[in-house]
Design brief:
By secondary structure, the protein is of the alpha/beta class. It is built from 18 helices and 18 strands. It has helices spanning 19-37, 53-62, 66-83, 97-112, 169-178, 186-197, 226-231, 233-236, 246-251, 264-277, 309-316, 318-327, 339-368, 381-402, 406-427, 429-435, 437-458, 463-472; strands at residues 3-12, 41-49, 90-93, 116-126, 131-133, 139-141, 144-146, 153-163, 183-184, 203-204, 206-207, 215-216, 219-224, 256-260, 286-289, 292-294, 297-298, 335-337. The strands form 5 sheets. A 6-stranded parallel β-sheet has the order 3-2-1-14-15-9, with helices on both faces. Strands 5-4-8-10 form a 4-stranded antiparallel β-sheet, covered by helices on one side. The chain has a 3-stranded antiparallel β-sheet with strand order 11-13-12. Helix 11 packs across helix 12 (318-327), helix 13 (339-368) packs antiparallel against helix 17 (437-458) and helix 17 runs antiparallel to helix 18. The structure holds ligand ME8.
């Protein structure tokens, strides 16, 4: 069986889950559902990043010990995933025993291979990013040292183990060249290549100033640098250090690590270097998506404009929100959340688009065909053309999903919806009722069969709404995978259909008090 392994970043538990976390998780969910429907054995992983200075500080501020703190706040992310209908197969927490074991095994492997040595770090550290910076990367602002991300840095001096990153530059460049799709989108790839070409220093991978982390084996004063710990989660969840585990053999190397552009360097530079240094294959792809702003403004706690995904779902609906996030912005680009754009999408694409097409087709079938799947007679060229467009969708979607082009995939699906709308206007089945019943049945059958295709391919994006549509077409639950997107599995004429119900209501703005 074909396998597919996809991961979200593991989220820092100090933050409240917001639209950015929802977005990455949703993109992975859409991808995972697509692959499952396409017959793959999928492993979809998400989780929380619970160690490091930032989390220790947050726990201190909350006045509880870090374990109790992370136990509590990690739940918020589980709830978020559930609320947006994310189908992850596992949820990993870096404070779990299985993860400590994996991190220490990886550490020992790197040490054994001479890739780690003991030294002393003296330089800048940004707690917010949990990242080291060189002097020339920083700006002086009001007497403070500020990283390119905007995070404030502090001077740190401590004994530390180092990973010999400086020795990996050429091998990384060769790896990028041999794997041109490793970093997507392409613009981000160029950015990473120039960073590596500019020369890299060895990376500090242990800390002695903090204690909240995975202990370095046989070095009680050191805990692992939180990014080495965090990245290892992708191995832990599939059974590492047991590289003979069934899950490990099936799923490593991962197919996609989905990340925001803020953490690309960790995933596309450090991570493949750690893995290759430990004798393990690097993942097949890191996809760095863009950044959401709110009505044109950067989203931040201090600006007070954090978008709460739960509020979005309550206001606009689950599948409507999922659709908007995947459709509005080409995946990879930055996006802006604007209320007006959301409402426009709901009303024109969902209510007037797929919703109206389903409603007008199904209500005519209910009224004029006795609520049974109509019986087609001979197909005209127009009928054949529409059915063909519906059947052509899958190969097209596969190639778009291969490069995570989710919004283009939705464009392609909406292309068929528009074609079906033109078809129904031209064929006017309501008029045929008086003149040619057999032709009316054929037209309505073609529409219902087109809707069956649309319902099946929309499942990854809008699982509830598309299943409601497939229910209305009486498509059995075990006949909704991509293997059923062919004429052999077409709707059975004469099968009774349930009474049609609207799938996507219009969004009507409540009057301001
Ligand atoms: O970086 N727009 O965790 P994190 C789009 N623990 N995506 C956004 C976003 C926004 N405005 N804000 C956040 C970490 N994200 C580490 C990861 S992985 C081994 C360790 C998303 O909680 C985006 O995916 O800060 C980003 O990369 C991630 O949340 C950062 O989550």
């Amino acid at each position: 069986m074909k396998t597919y392994y996809i991961t979200t970043p593991i989220y820092y538990v100090n933050d409240v889950p917001h639209i950015g976390h929802a977005y990455t998780s949703l993109a992975c969910d859409v991808m995972a559902r697509f692959k499952r429907l396409d017959g793959y054995n999928v492993m979809f992983l998400s989780g929380t990043d619970e160690h490091g200075q930032k989390i220790a500080k947050a726990a201190e501020k909350a006045g509880i010990d870090p374990q109790a703190f992370t136990d509590k706040v990690s739940q918020n992310f589980r709830i978020l995933l559930k609320n947006i209908n994310i189908s992850n197969d596992d949820f990993i927490r870096t404070t779990e025993e299985r993860h400590k074991k994996a991190c220490q095994a990886l550490w020992n492997e790197l040490l054994k291979r001479g890739e780690i040595y003991l030294g002393k770090y003296a330089g800048w550290y940004a707690m917010r990013d949990e990242a080291y910076y060189t002097e020339d990367e920083l700006k002086d602002v009001d007497g403070k040292k500020i990283a390119p991300s905007g995070a404030e840095c502090e001077w740190v001096e401590e004994p530390s183990y180092f990973f010999k990153l400086s020795a990996w530059g050429d091998r990384l460049l060769k790896f990028y060249e041999e794997n041109p799709d490793f970093i997507l989108p392409i613009s981000r790839r160029n950015e990473v290549i120039s960073f590596v070409k500019s020369g890299m220093r060895d990376l500090s991978v242990s800390r002695t100033a903090i204690t909240w982390g995975v202990p370095v084996p046989d070095e009680p004063k050191h805990v692992m640098y939180v990014w080495l710990d965090a990245l290892t989660n992708y191995l832990t969840a599939i059974g590492y250090p047991d590289t003979n585990a069934d899950t490990f053999k099936k799923f490593w190397p991962a197919d996609v690590h989905m990340v925001g552009k803020d953490i690309l360097r960790f995933h596309a530079v450090y991570w493949p270097a750690f893995l290759m240094a430990a004798g393990l294959p690097a993942p097949k792809r890191v996809f760095a998506h863009g950044w959401w702003t709110n009505e044109g403004q950067k989203i931040s706690k201090s600006l007070g404009n954090v978008i709460d995904p739960v509020e979005l779902l309550a206001t606009y609906g689950l599948d409507q929100t999922r659709y908007f996030l995947m459709r509005e912005v080409p995946f990879g680009n930055d996006g802006d959340f604007a209320r007006e754009a959301m409402i426009r999408r709901i009303n024109s694409d969902l209510a007037n688009g797929i919703g109206n097409l389903a409603q007008r087709s199904l209500s005519q079938i209910a009224k004029n065909c006795g609520g049974l799947v109509p019986t087609p007679k001979e197909y005209t060229d127009k009928d054949k053309a529409l059915l063909q467009s519906a059947e052509n969708l899958l190969p097209h979607l596969r190639s778009l999903f291969d490069v995570q082009s989710f919004s283009k995939a939705l464009d392609a699906i909406w292309g068929v919806i528009a074609e079906a709308d033109r078809y129904v206007d031209e064929q006017a089945p309501w008029a045929l009722k008086k003149t040619d019943i057999a032709r009316m049945e054929t037209v309505l059958y073609v529409l219902a069969e087109t809707l069956r295709h649309l319902g099946i391919v929309l499942q990854p994006f809008m699982p509830d709404a598309s299943n409601a549509l497939l229910d209305q077409l009486a498509v059995p639950a075990d006949a909704r995978s991509f293997a059923h997107l062919n004429a052999a599995n077409a709707l059975t004429p004469g099968r009774p259909l349930p009474a049609p119900q609207g799938i996507f209501p219009r969004y009507i703005e409540a009057a301001k008090p």
